[in-house]
Amino acid sequence: MDAPTKLVVVAVVIAAVLFAVAAAVLVRLVRARRGLRRAGLPTGPRWVFWGAVAYFVLPADALPDPVYLDDIGVLLLALRSLRRAPENAPTQAPD
Description:
Number of domains: 1
Number of helices: 3
Helix content: over 70%
Order of helices and strands: HHH
Radius of gyration: 18 Å
Structural class: mainly alpha
């Protein structure tokens, strides 16, 4: 195998690994939102969740799509905001 072919193979493997990580973070985001909703807890602003999902799915990105680092970052920020939503929720005064 010559050097350019090896480079292409390595790039494809790296892109596949990054896509798998991004997909795993997307699954965690969806599961976290579903779990919070089932528990009756706030999930934060809807636009954060749907914006992150749209950013992952739509082809327009800050970085070209073989590089999923920006997608991973957006999904992680959305997951972080989802997990903080119950902490920031107004508490009810005891009766």
